[in-house]
Amino acid sequence: MLDEALKVITPEIIGYVAATLTTVSFLPQAIMTLKTRDTESLSLGMYSSFTLGVLLWLIYGICIADKAIIYANAITFLLASSILSFKIYNTLRKKKKS
Questions:
Q1: Looking at the domain 11-97, which fold is it?
Q2: Total Cβ atoms within 10 A of residue 57
Q3: Residues 68 and 32 sit within 8 Å (Cβ to Cβ)
Q4: Residues 23-74 pLDDT 10s
C-alpha cells in the first residue's frame, strides 16, 4: 500500500504541494497589509532581503524550467514587492514629516 502511494507521489507533485503551501501561507499577511497599508511593524531590511530572495528563486526556477518554483515565486514576488513598495513609501513619508 505505502509502496503504491510512493509511486504516485512524484518530486513534481511534492514541488507543487510545497509551492502551494508556502504561497498560500503568505497570503493572509499580504492581503491584510495591502488592505490596511500598515507597514509599521515590518522591518525594511528583512522585507527587502525577503523580496530579493523571492526574485532570485523566481530566476532560478526560470533557469531550470521548474513550473512549481516559477508560479509560486512569481505570485509571491508580486505580493512581496507591492508590500515592499508600501513600506518604502511609508518610511519616506514618515521621514519627510519629521
A1: Monooxygenase (1.20.1280)
A2: 18
A3: no
A4: 999 899 899 998 999 999 999 999 999 999 999 999 999 999 999 999 999 9
Q: What is the DSSP string of 51-91?
A: HHHHHHHHHHHHHHT-HHHHHHHHHHHHHHHHHHHHHHHHH
DSSP 42: S
Measured CA distances, 40 to 10, 54, 71, 73 (Å):
42, 22, 29, 25
Q: What is the pLDDT of residues 84-94, one digit of tens each?
A: 999 999 999 98
Measured distance CA(48)–CA(68) in Å, rounded: 23
Determine the residue type at 4.
E
Name residues whose C-beta falls within 8 Å of residue 28's C-beta, 6 or more positions apart in sequence. none
C-alpha cell at 3: 509502496
Q: What is the pTM of this model?
A: 0.84
